[in-house]
């Protein structure tokens, strides 16, 4: 999870000014909850708010709790569930339930362990959900290592029974060595949520919350058309780290692609190979080829389809698609890899403009990453309304 737009800047500004605030974090959700676990909101003295945790159902109560937390200097944990119109009880009208942990951040000392959240740095943050509210944080990828968590966990659970000496054993509870392994496993899986369960709770240890902050997913777009510019803009809006790559410097300029985080004037397949070798692509990465030149498209797609990416798409008519598939097969692309190519790219939304094209492509990306093989209108489905894209 990432803290959300504006939170990092607001938190840093308030810390620099010596202004106390509270961090409210969604630590658990069931049913139709509007925001994913790990979503955060900041509340400063005077009721100044940055971010949100729901569709507006519980924010007022969270703000009130946050002001109490700032005044008292200790965390509060609140649960919100379904509420009908016959009572003044605060609740979620969508029928789901959420738990919120509100923590004080009154100075730099209390911000320790939250730097990863406020700086949006790749890291894992682990904190207690009880009144002590201690925190620990490790940068990625170091946080994937169970050994790295032993000392932070020992400090986090200091004076708690059942953690064992030095993390090696515990007569009446979970040894730190095993608990550290569970934390590292959650980090490796990108799993933000509560670390509890009967085994941990039976020891009397506090429930822990793990928040994994990975870099933004990558969107690599090959091409310099208006459709490419619109796709980069839409991708950035959805939280992607956006790159435009093309060998033609004349068409690839910052003025034409103001929403791009970076512009790479080089052959896209060479850029993709270098990024993969450097470990900067992962299972969340998206590659879209929007050109019409086989010299650019074919080597890029042939490589991209062999990598463990979330989505590979290519623009073109059905005739262009058929010819492209033939050429890729002749290059040795396997039938299984060809099946991964989303072409013609995007969902059929009935649009025609570059902006509508970009919407259709990113809608397909969201559907693919969310495991929706055949997206449907919500009114035609049952079950929770809010899906979750895997970490």
Features:
3 domains; five-stranded antiparallel beta sheet; 391 residues; alpha/beta; six-stranded parallel beta sheet; Rossmann fold; 13 helices
Break the fold down into its secondary structure elements and pairings.
Layout (H helix, E strand, L loop, with lengths): L6 H10 L4 E10 L9 E5 L3 E3 L8 H14 L3 E5 L16 E9 L2 H4 L3 H5 L3 E6 L6 E5 L6 H11 L19 H13 L4 E3 L1 H5 L6 E6 L4 E5 L3 H12 L3 E5 L16 E3 L3 H10 L8 E4 L4 H11 L6 E4 L3 H13 L4 H4 L2 E2 L11 H16 L22
Parallel strand pairs: 10-11, 10-13, 11-12, 13-14, 14-15
Antiparallel strand pairs: 1-2, 1-5, 2-3, 4-5, 6-7, 6-9, 8-9
Helix pairs in contact: 5-6, 8-13, 9-10
What is the CA-atom radius of gyration, in angstroms? 24 Å
- Termini distance? 8 Å
Proportion of β residues? 15-25%
Q: Give the number of domains.
A: 3
Low-confidence stretches: 84-88, 165-173
What is the averaged pLDDT score? 85
What's the CATH C level of the largest domain? Alpha Beta
Fraction in helix: 25-40%
Largest sheet at a glance?
6 strands, parallel
Q: What is the CATH-assigned architecture of the largest domain?
A: 3-Layer(aba) Sandwich
Query: Which fold name is given in CATH as the topology of the largest domain?
Result: Rossmann fold
CATH homologous superfamily identity of the largest domain? NAD(P)-binding Rossmann-like Domain
Element pattern in H and E: HEEEHEEHHEEHHEHEEHEEHEHEHHEH
Strands, count = 15
The order of strands across the largest sheet is 12-11-10-13-14-15
Class computed from helices, strands and strand pairing: alpha/beta
Overall body shape? elongated
Count of discrete alpha- or pi-helical segments spanning 4 or more residues: 13
